[in-house]
Specification:
alpha+beta
Amino acid sequence: MAAPGKGSYGLPTVRINNWSEELELQKTLLRDFQARRESGDLLVHKLEEKHRLALAPAELSTGEFLHFGDTIQLANPHTQSVLATDLGDTIPFSGTSMGFAVTGTRESTPVARNCFVIARPEAQHEGTNDRKNEVVHFGQNFVLQTYPSYTDPSLYLCSMLGTMQLSSRYTHNQLVFLSPRKGYEACWKVLHVDPRLRFEAEGDPIPANALCIVRHSQSNVSLACDNVLYRNDFGVELEAFCKNSLDNHKAETPLNRWLFVNAIPGQEAAAAASA
């Protein structure tokens, strides 16, 4: 014969074990969830806000040549990507200073995260004749700052010589990142894509939508992008870094070749895209 009351423990009305503590824990978790939902602290809300700022539409500048103040995209035909930023991917680069990741994205629609503004560097990093006009010339220092609606204050595209602790995540090349610093580590210059014409082109205006080499002024290493997958909150993108990738003729390979894209595509951009 079964013990008296043995079958009654299976009824849904009978509470056993630490039922009171479990019930209170469920209520506490529910109250915490409701509070974070009302305050916008849920992860889904943070991602929505991040995407809202990063994917806000941006307007590119127009013109035959590059000017200070122009809004442009940096496109790499080899990977069919444009340079983009991720403010949610932080990188410690100097003591307590934090930078933000830079990648290559194949989403080429102009938005806040993949557009940059060409700006003048600090006065000590400019040449004697750099302020004669607003046109950007081959060999002239400039900085690339984030789109105005994306960050306040502005962040700048930077690079630093690689170390064991400071290098790109996957290929371990020289790191490229965003930083609030506007020092020499944020200075870049453009070189002619053909090494045989590079010396003659020094000082000439830089045409928009033309293949060129973007070189970091402090380290003398060129900006590059390769088909190395880089996963972040925007999906699967590509790793961007600095590396002098040269062929047998001491000319830069397609990894180092970039286009400053504005709102009027040129013949060079169309040719590079179809290649």
